[in-house]
Amino acid sequence: MATAKKVFKWTGVAADGSQRTGELSANTKEEVVAALRRMRIEPKNISDATPGAGLFKKKKGKITERDLVIFTRQFATMFNSGIPIVQGLDILSKQSENRAMAEIVAQVKADVETGMTLADAMKKHPKIFDDLYVNLVAAGEAGGVLDEVLLRLAVYIEKSMKLKKKVKGAMIYPAIVISVAVLVIAIIMIFVIPIFAKIFTEMGAQLPAPTRSVIWLSNFLGGIGGLMVFGGFVVFIFLFKRYRATEGGKKNTDRMFLKLPIVGDLIRKVAIARFTRTLGTLLNSGVPILDGLDVCAKSSGNKIVEETIYDVKKEVSAGKTVAEPLSKSEIFPSMVVQMISVGESTGALDQMLIKIADFYDDEVDNAVANLTTMLEPMLMVFLGTTIGYIVVALYLPIFKMGEVIGGK
Known about the structure:
Layout: E1 6-14, E2 19-26, H1 29-38, E3 41-48, H2 65-80, H3 85-95, H4 99-113, H5 118-123, H6 131-143, H7 146-203, H8 209-222, H9 224-244, H10 247-259, H11 263-284, H12 289-298, H13 303-317, H14 323-326, H15 334-346, H16 349-407
Antiparallel strand pairs: 1-2, 1-3
């Protein structure tokens, strides 16, 4: 298993006699010495500058998509202004507010100084720079349009963030309402109903069936039954995650998610928007279509969609168009297939894919709005019915006792 490289700060004398300083990423000091001598620099001092190498480690921040967007945009602006790659990376590493991002950029800069391409240096940090990012940067370097590619990347990441935000927003509201509903019902069942049950027992009243059922459920949840329900829920979540971690489990659950009413349609539209935008951005930046399809498959987020894209890649490598194998898929509707076919026949596939992505971004907006609109009354009916049943069950004995007293 490969160990993480350290960052070494060095000073040395160049062949022309000038003093030089910098940082290099390597496993040992000996590797740094060898790298410097290949650069015709005689090392004078080499020290370990790896973050956290000292007695007290500095806490690293989490690198978010927003940090990546800011870095990408600033880097594109600097490169477009004529600032060399190494100098631009050095400036960005020093001015970044996120310490973790600053460290990654510093390592990328050190690797570029040793002669690596920018894409290869970024490829060493897959958690930050994914396959899409690395492939686009490689295409930009090869085509001499790195600044344009970086700007496209920033736009792509921003739109991806917006898409994720929409989907998460659609899930947050019902999750909060359900959580509050469960909490309110649990408090009533565990703390309120036992008080009424004690009063009814002391009065010796004959309880109607709804009241008896509510009291039984309260006793069940307030005792070992509540622990069993909670434990069963935890075990189910644990087993579900373990099952989904397997190849077959992920495939089966992803297929199930796609078949869910309402939610499945939303997942499908998100997958289409992500696929078309990713492939369109890659093709527009000069990445070969087979490499682009490979990146799209890996970043699809759904096993069924991933397998569909790999099938497309296989057919395309055999000489077929993208539209032909897509037409056999249940994921992509006929409208998308026809638009892709038109894009291929006119030689403007990348632009057509971006148009499809923009259209499906709006479709996701509508799907999210429809989901929220449908869930609101359903949740309100559930909450109202449940609490209403509990209230009626508790007051039925009181009403009957009142009738008996009134009859006397």
